[in-house]
Amino acid sequence: MTINFNWVRKDLLPYNDMFRKARSKSRNPMNSCKWCGNQFADNEMISLAQPTKGKNFVLCKKCADEAIGGEDIQSVEVGNDE
Ligand SMILES: [Zn+2]
User: Fold this and answer.
1) Which of 46, 63, 70, 81 is the most buried (most CB within 10 A)?
2) Domain residues of the chain, as ranges?
3) Ligand 1 ion: residues within 5 Å (CB)
4) β-bridge partners, 39
5) 0.85 cut: is pTM over it?
C-alpha cells in the first residue's frame, strides 16, 4: 500500500527514559520503528511522520534517511501494515 505524508520530521527526539515514561501510558508505546520493526536503542534519534490518513508514527534514523528520504517526500510504499 502507499502512504502519503503530510510531513516527516527527522531526528525529532531521542529514545530515552523520558520518552519511555511518557509513552508507557499509551496503547502505542512507540518503542520500535514502524518501517523496519527494529526496536530503538537507548538515545537513538527518533523521527516522526504524519501520514495524510491515520495516526502519526515513528521511524528509526536509518529508515528516515534511506526509506523516507528528504522532507519533500510525498508517498512511499510499505509492506504488510495492518
Ligand atoms: Zn527503521
Assistant:
1) 46
2) 2-69
3) 33, 35-36, 60, 63
4) 32
5) no
